[in-house]
Each structure stands twice: as C-alpha cells, then as structure tokens.
Amino acid sequence: MADVEYVNIAKKYGAVEVMRGLSLRIEHGEFAVLLGPSGCGKTTLLRMTAGLETITEGELRIGGARMNETHPRDRDIAMVFQNYALYPTMKVWENIGFSLEVKKLPKKDVRARVEEAAEMLNLTPYLDRYPRELSGGQRQRVAMGRAMVRDAKVFLFDEPLSNLDAKLRAQMRVEIRQLHDRLGATTVYVTHDQIEAMTMADKIVLMNAGRIEQIGSPDEVYDRPMSRYVADFIGTPGMNFIEGAFESGSGGLAFVAAGIRLPLPAGAPVAPRGGVVCGLRPADLKLDPAGGIHGALSLTEKTGADEHLHVSVQGRDLVAVAPRHALDRAARSVTLSIAPDKAHYFDAGDGARLF
Amino acid sequence: MSFDLAIVAESLPRLLEGLTLTLALIAMSLAGGALLAGPAAWLLMRPSPWLRGPARVYVWAFRGTPALVQLFVIYYGLAQFEWLRATAAWGVLREPFWCCVLAFSLNSGAYTAEILRGAIAGVPAEQAEAARALGLSPARIFRLVLWPQALRLALPPYGNEVVGMIKTSALASTVTLAEVTGVAETIAAETFAPYEVFLSAAIIYLALSSAAERAIAAIECRRAWPC
Fold this sequence. Notes:
heterodimer, A: alpha+beta, Rossmann fold, CATH 2.40.50.140, 2 domains, 8 helices, B: mainly alpha, MetI-like fold, 10 helices, 79% helix, flat, transmembrane transporter activity (chain B), transmembrane helix (chain B), amino-acid transport (chain B), cell membrane (chain B), transport (chain B)
C-alpha cells in the first residue's frame, strides 16, 4: 500500500524557516492536490517527497516506511516536472524508456513498455521525434509516459499544466485524471490553480505560508471553507466579503452591514457581536425583487453561459452570477437575495470560520 | 599604385608551405586547451573556495591579458630561470614552436573552461533532478544527461574560440616561427609588395576560419543534436 504520510515536517533554509509542524496523510490510490499561492511551500513539500530536498525535522513515510534518508531512486516515486525536463538530445521513445535503460532492462522489454505507454497516451506516431518537434501538450504526455513506465507507487506532479494554453490545460486535466484512475497509483499534484484542484482532486490540501489551512474534498473546501483565506482562494469569481456585525432584532439574529441585512439560519451558534466578515459566493446571490440587498448595477460581464453582475451597495462592490438575459438591458439597479444557509461567517480578526 | 596578381600567384604556394606549421599549432593548442579546460571547468564549479580559487585566478589572468604578452612572457621570460634551464623540460621550452603551443594552450584553456562552465550551468536544473529521481548516480547524470546538452550549448561559443585560435596562431611569427604570417613577412621583405602578400595570407586565414565555422555548424546539426 502506497499511502504517503508527513509527520510534523519542518524545513529550514539556513535560519529561514519555511515550513513547521506540517502533518498530512494521503491514502493509497488517492489524488491529492497541494494548492496554494507561490511561495506557500507546496513545491518544497513535493520535492521533499521526491528526495530532491532534505527534511529538516519530522518524518516522511511512504507505504509505512520512513523515507527521510532514502535515495530518490529507492522511493518508488515518479515525478513530472513543471517544464517537463525532457532530454532534448533523445527521441521521444528514448525519453520514455530512459529510466528502464538505466536499469539495464532488455531492449525488447523496454520497447514493449514504451509502446504500451505511448499507446495509452496517444504518442505512438511521435516516438521517433525529438521533444523540440512536439507541441506543449505532446511534451506533457511524454513527461507523463516517462513517469508511467516506471510502474511507481506514487506519482508526483509539479504544476505540470502551467505552461499550456487554457484549452489544452482543460484537456490535459481530464487526461491526467483518467490516467490516475486507470493506474490506481497514489498521486500528489501541486498547483496554484484552484480550478485544476477542484476538477481533479479527491483531496485538496490548501496551503499558506508553509502551513496547511484546510484539508478536504473539493466540495468540502468550497461549501465549508474553514477560514477567510480558504474562502477567498476557492471559487471563481471570488467570494464577496462584507464587514459587519451580528445584531438581534424583531426577526431574530441577523448579520447587519451598511445597506445589507441578512437573517441568520435558525439555531445559529452565535451571539450578538461585532467584528464579523460575511462571505457571499457570487453564484449564491440570486436576482430577487423581494431580496434584502439593493444596489446600483455598475458593470455586466458576459461570459457566454452567464453574466457577472457588478453591483455597488453603498460604495461596496459585490459580484453576482446571473443567467444570461435574466436582467433587462436597461436596468440600472438590482435587488439580490441569498439563502441564509449559503452565507459564510468569519472572524474579522483571525479569519477563522464562525459557522 | 598597382595590384600585382602575379605576386599573389607566386606567394600562395610558399604561404601554403607555412600552413602545415599553422595547422599543427592550431590543432595542438586547441587540444592542449581542451585538456586544461575540462579540469579547470570542474574546479570552477566546486563549492570549495580552495578548489575554485586557483581555477578562477587562472581563467582571470589568461582571459584578462593579451595572448601576445603571454607568448612573450613564456618565450622570453622562461629563459631567465636558471633552474628551469637545468631541467629536461628546457630541451622543449627553448623551442619557439613549443613555447607557442604552451602559451596558446594556456590561453585557449582559460576561454574554453569558461565556455564549458557556462554550458554546464546553462542546462536547466530540472534535467539533473529528473535524472536523480530516475535513480542515476552523479557520474551517470553528468555523462548521460548534462554532458550531451552542455556540449550542444558549448559548441557555438567554442566555434568562436576555434576561429580565435586560428587568428591567434599568427602571433607565432613574432617568435621566429615560419607559419603563414611568418612566411608572409619574409616574402613581403623580398618583394616589397606587402599589400599583395598579406592579402594572400588573409585569404588563407579566411579559408581556414570558414572551414572551421562550417565544421562546427555541421557538428551542431548532426542528427544526435537536432538543430
């Protein structure tokens, strides 16, 4: 079983501590995505997994065995790099079979495994080409093929789609996920793109400044972000944030801010207090003449399938997603509503989720 | 002033006799330079200042001073050391040809070491890391992954070094060697037609440089290193 476990991992570069007390378990066969902005430590964690970076403190276990001092070749991992790291002096088939040739496998076996991988990745017509003669997507597939033929227990991907255009990225997302499902290996995938994380992951590990902010399925991190940071990072367009307070009134407890009053769900585990940030997902804001959010329409962005409405509520800009043509073209103001259980509430100080 | 083609026609065969010596000088100096450059480049890339320091001083000194001065220091300067004159090495170092080979080798070695260092450093770090992850030893990473790519990166600047050495070889005439330029000086003194004679020599150097450039380009475009 190739589960990957990080126990109290710390990493220092000289006196600079970039990671501290990080613990995480990735189950066998799981597709885990390390997600976060540049410099959050996700690539460092991946490189420590591969053995390309030393671990300052803590323990890395693969399949239950401690790996801290184990040479990369003995970890049974395969890595796909951001820039593919294909060897320009070798043809595609040599690139894919390189690790097998290094192991001194018989030429016949190498060729058979290369052809099998090429077939799976639609690379058969390109086996005799050099990397420079391939498109970005084809190079990406060659890098994946090189990892595949090793029959590794754990696959590591370091932002493999960041050099591709949007359309190809979408296509490769599907291909990588399908490949994972077919091979059944444990996959650790690093990205800063939350769409990649949401569409591919079984488990998202959202990182920030060398710490884990939240671990959960795509649905969990989207529906129940545990901090304002997570809420802000996940979702397109980004979540709207409004500072206000919980106040009790005739209709019970409500979140109140300038021009906005949102009733809290029944039995909400909070008391009246200030210093609250309310998070509203644009997709959860509905056009509703009886709604409690009134504002001036400042901009409409047409995306094809729907429209992003920029609504100014007492000087505060909110974004709502509406079906196309749902709004009269001459409209200058809109009224929005949101179901009480769709609003997210965070502490204005530390950003922790209130409920 | 008239241009006498007959002198050019007369000079070329004699100049071509000097070409043998020129080619020997170039070949041996480049070979010597290459032999020095490998270890020097390796030392330049070491983290230890004790290893890196001497190599950096060598490269700095020989890239920072004219080849002619280096040649004079070796040809005229070494004779000052009595202890050297008493060794077997003096039998070789008293010869202008070997002084030229030594001076040009040291000069070429410094430039080539820097070319190699830059080429090896120019191979993306991920290439070595990918090989490490595949389980290769440092020696095999260098031989199978870094070296073929570094060679590819080093070829164009090394082509410049070869052409530079072809031109530098002309300095050998200053220490009495009868290579192409040395022969040209002799003919010019006999015929009082320096324009025609040195133009003939220039044609030979141009032909050599062009041949070297074509050869390097051909190596660059070999199937093993697609261009």
